[in-house]
Automatic annotation (TrEMBL):
Gene from which the chain derives: ZMYND15
PANTHER family documented for this protein: ZINC FINGER MYND DOMAIN-CONTAINING PROTEIN 15 (PTHR47085)
Bias type Pro residues, positions: 701-716
GO MF, one example: histone deacetylase binding
GO CC annotation, single: cytoplasm
Biased composition (Acidic residues): 110-126
GO biological process, one term: negative regulation of DNA-templated transcription
Compositional bias of kind Basic residues: 719-735
Domain MYND-type: 306-352
Protein name from the UniProt record: Zinc finger MYND-type containing 15
């Protein structure tokens, strides 16, 4: 049994859901179009019998004139490390958004301009994913050789056959070119103009839940400037509406709206005679103007899938295991298949009672002092709406969001030395700021008089209100603080770490933590008399950042650049030091940890590590075993801690300490696709237990003692434990 929730990037889960639905829509649109006219009548009759949704539905027509997408060489099919459709749909190991930057770039289609725009923009890379998927699917949106009228109009069978592959041109022509081989594809791609998404058809309800999508694609720049892209869209829009009702993408069972409004006047007129055939009332007039009202966001989509067959929730009805309530299945067949997996220790039969114990920790993990706790720990937590309603749409907050910032929105600067301009400006908290008043109050004049062991105690001293969301970003420095002040003295008292005036800490397999590097400035506030050196190590760090380092100093606003040793920035914290100035040095090593050379650190820390998800851990853990340095790691779930313990046993013969909840975990509940377990960033902490130097031998891969005897037969899906509540629809993540 394997889950990857808490590690995979949310935008890739969103892409998997989006294009899983889109491919199904394209296939069924072709099937309907190539069938006799009675097939349309049958589909319309089926939709007329659906229950009514009281919410208003909206058909958005969103033309695009100026931005195209250029696919890099890595996006090509064939030999090499291409970005295949299977990877986008989640059949391969987890991707990160930065993996897409080598394949996708954005270009201007304005006359006389073809300049690349932010390749490293995480959300925009995800938009580029749409192009990769539709090209490789072979039967996605039409190219410039097709007109919108050829897109499966009801009753116009010849054009529909062309798009479905039954004719002599259209997509069949695309397939013929694709079959010519990678060399021909590569040559064609390099000579062709950027791809252009001329128009996007989007079906949502009034709350912003996405119910269906269709992409109208052009293949050349010359077509980018034509009209609104809404000519002859009625048949295509009608097919999209039918599929959105019979198979809604966002959530819920098949249903039809009581009323529909259309965002284009011409398309509204063309649909007047079609939409009533579905038993849906069309608004009297089109939606004249539409723009997002303040605080509006499209509701977060939850990529719920069966743990075994990976079918999405719009394809099948998913229910959790009736015994543990942790794992989602589409039916009894998949439950039984998972129950009987071999070897036994990967079967659900082995894990079911253990997962039930993990589920019982949900209430404890959701016990946090914040005023918004109930919202952010709910299974139905809409993170995008939470961030947008508080103006958290720029700076480091974009690292947490799937929203695509509009033109001119300040972005998180990237480069070999992160946020260099902000370092020299003397404002370490600028990237932590939202659109409203300052989120971080001035640094208290007096240093802490006691050690903090909870968010509530830290917030009170720091002057933060319990309605502040800063804990979501500060979980990283506060976790480091908690390890230094609480966990190391408990587990390694002989080190006397609290009396040290300088500490060298390695942050291993760093990635996201380095992208949020300025949050670690808070360590200077919490540990004012300790000189800290944080060295971020990992092969996922930007190669150009290798061997870079810079220093954050408290006194004086001036800054300087020293090419030989990196960047030195003097930042004022507003407090005078009594015991001399202490600095925070940041170093970067873009390589696996076992290849790192240099002095032995005082402490090693890793965030949301996932030992079993990356092969380099099988070399890095033995390196830590040889160093025998205190090493603490966090995980986003208790399940992850068990898997890390097993990986440590295989790699070194050692193990890990019993995991304990991290009081400084992030309050945001993470999504999961194929399970209902509670996942939180930095939820649990443990340290490595090294094998004795001599005669210790190895031990078998450990696992937690089962809280109950392992059942002999799979539970009856129709029965549920007494008093157990039916799980609600919530945020899911999967491999």
């Amino acid at each position: 049994m394997e889950f990857v929730s808490g590690y995979r990037d949310e935008f890739l889960d969103f892409a998997a859901l989006l294009f899983g639905w889109f491919r199904k829509f394209v296939a069924e649109r072709g099937a309907v179009g190539t069938s006799p006219e009675g097939r349309w009548q049958q589909l319309e009759a089926q939709i007329r019998r659906l229950p009514q949704d009281p919410a208003l539905w909206v058909l958005h027509v969103l033309p695009n004139r100026s931005v195209g997408i250029s696919l890099g060489q890595g996006a090509e099919p064939g030999p090499g490390s291409g970005l295949g459709a299977a990877r986008l749909l989640g059949d391969e190991p987890p991707l990160h958004l930065r993996d897409l930057s080598a394949y996708v770039s954005f270009v201007s289609l304005e006359e006389g301009e073809e300049e690349e725009e932010e390749e490293e923009n995480g959300e925009e890379e995800g938009a580029g994913t749409k192009k990769v998927e539709t090209e490789e699917a072979g039967e996605a949106a039409p190219t410039s050789r097709e007109s919108p009228r050829e897109a499966n109009p009801p009753g116009e069978l010849e054009e529909a056959k062309q798009e479905a592959g039954g004719g002599k041109d259209g997509c069949q022509e695309d397939r013929a070119e694709d079959e010519a081989g990678p060399e021909r594809r590569k040559g064609r791609r390099s000579e062709a103009a950027p791809l252009h998404l001329s128009c996007l058809l989007l079906v949502t309800d009034e709350h912003g839940t996405i119910l269906g999508i269709d992409l109208l694609m052009d293949g050349a720049q010359g077509t980018a400037g034509r009209g609104s892209g809404t000519e002859n869209l009625a048949p295509r829009a009608y097919a999209l509406l039918c599929h959105s009702m019979a198979c809604p993408m966002g959530s819920g069972d098949p249903r039809k709206p009581r009323q529909l409004t259309v965002g284009d006047a011409q398309l509204h007129r063309e649909l007047e005679n079609l939409v009533p055939r579905l038993g849906v009332k069309l608004a009297k007039t089109p939606m004249r103007t539409w723009g997002p009202r303040p605080g509006f966001t499209f509701a977060s989509l939850r990529a719920r899938t069966c743990h075994v067959c990976h079918k999405h929730s719009f394809e099948v009805k998913l229910t959790p295991c009736p015994q543990c309530g942790a794992v989602l299945y589409c039916g009894e067949a998949c439950l039984r298949a998972d129950w009987k997996r071999c070897p036994d220790d990967v079967s659900h039969r082995f894990w079911c009672p253990r997962l039930a114990a993990f589920m019982e920790r949900a209430g404890e993990l959701a016990t946090l002092p914040f005023t918004y706790t109930a919202e952010v720990t709910s299974e139905t937590f809409n993170k995008e709406a939470f961030l947008a309603s508080r103006g958290l749409t720029r700076g480091y907050w974009t690292q947490l969001s799937m929203l695509i910032p509009g033109p001119g929105t300040p972005r998180h600067p990237r480069g070999p030395t992160p946020s260099l301009s902000l370092l020299l400006s003397g404002d370490p908290y600028q990237l932590l700021q939202g659109d409203g008043p300052a989120l971080m109050p001035p640094v208290p004049l007096d240093p802490p008089r006691s050690l903090f062991g909870s968010w509530q105690a830290y917030y009170m001293w720091r002057g933060l209100g319990l309605d502040s969301p800063m804990a979501v970003l500060l979980t990283y420095p506060l976790t480091v603080y908690y390890v230094i002040t609480h966990l190391v003295p408990q587990s390694f008292p002989e080190l006397n770490i609290q009396n040290k005036q300088s500490l060298k800490i390695h942050v291993v397999e760093a990635g996201k933590e380095f992208d949020l590097v300025m949050v670690f400035w808070e360590l200077l506030v919490l540990l004012p008399h300790v000189a800290l050196e944080l060295q971020f190590v990992g092969d996922g760090l930007p190669p150009e950042s290798d061997q870079q380092h810079f220093t954050l100093q408290r006194d004086g606003p001036e800054g300087s650049v020293r090419p030989s040793s990196g960047v030195s920035a003097r930042l004022s914290s507003g407090m005078k030091e009594k015991g001399g100035r202490r600095d925070l040095q940041i170093k970067v090593s873009s390589r696996p940890y076992h290849l790192l050379q240099g002095p032995k650190p005082d402490l090693v820390i890793g965030f949301n590590s996932g030992f079993g998800l990356k092969d380099t851990w099988l070399s890095s853990l033995p390196r830590l075993q040889s160093l025998r340095v205190p090493a603490f790691f966090t995980e986003s779930s208790e399940y992850g801690c068990v898997m890390d313990d097993q990986t440590m046993a295989v790699a070194t013969g050692g193990g890990t300490s019993p995991p304990q909840p991290n009081p400084f975990r992030s309050p945001f509940r993470l999504r999961a696709a194929d399970n209902c377990m509670p996942w939180y960033c930095n939820a649990f902490i443990f340290h490595l237990v090294y094998k004795p130097p001599q005669g210790g031998g190895t031990r078998p891969a450990p696992g937690p003692a089962p809280p109950a005897s392992t059942p002999a037969a799979p539970p009856d899906p129709a029965r549920r434990r007494r008093g157990e509540k039916k799980p609600g629809r919530g945020s899911r993540r999967r491999r």
